[in-house]
Specification:
This protein is mostly helical and 143 residues long. It is built from five helices and no strands. Helix 1 packs antiparallel against helix 2. The longest helix is centred in the N-terminal third of the chain and has 33 residues.
Length: 143
């Protein structure tokens, strides 16, 4: 990955993180009291995945990760940094236990965050593909 692509990828990830913080705030304040913690976290993973794809789709032309290799590299960078952020934020800001963090990634325990991270990995490539498939004939939206 070039330096400029890395910087653009970090900027888009910052937008994703801001969106995910808003998603988590809405989940905590409004959804958790109505459906309980586990269901709220599952709903939050789905809504967060939609948010991630929307940000990746909107930012795809600016990101300019035009090759599959670049798109997967961006996705991998996003996953590594997002997991680090999730652990740091969870442990240091909200005081979540290690067991709770692990449960969020465990499908056997109802956690969907592992699937959310897989979605984040795929988001740059998926967003680019959707943009290319929806481009008008003779018009490349990624340019």
């Amino acid at each position: 990955m070039t330096r400029s692509l890395t910087l653009r990828a970090l900027a888009v990830l910052a937008l994703i993180i801001v969106g995910e913080i808003a998603n988590g705030t809405v989940r905590t304040l409004f959804i958790t009291p109505r459906v309980g913690d586990l269901a709220a976290r599952q709903i939050g993973t789905v809504s967060g995945s939609v948010l991630i794809l929307m940000v990746a789709w909107v930012c795809s032309p600016w990101l300019r990760a035009s090759t599959r290799r670049a798109q997967w590299a961006v996705g991998l960078l996003w996953v590594v940094l997002m997991m680090a952020f999730e652990v740091a934020f969870g442990r240091l800001v909200t005081g979540v236990s290690w067991a709770r963090l692990a449960a969020d990634y465990s499908l056997a325990r109802g956690g969907l965050l592992g699937l959310g991270m897989a979605w984040l990995l795929c988001a740059p490539s998926l967003a680019h593909t959707i943009r290319q498939k929806s481009a008008w004939p003779g018009r490349n939206l990624a340019e």
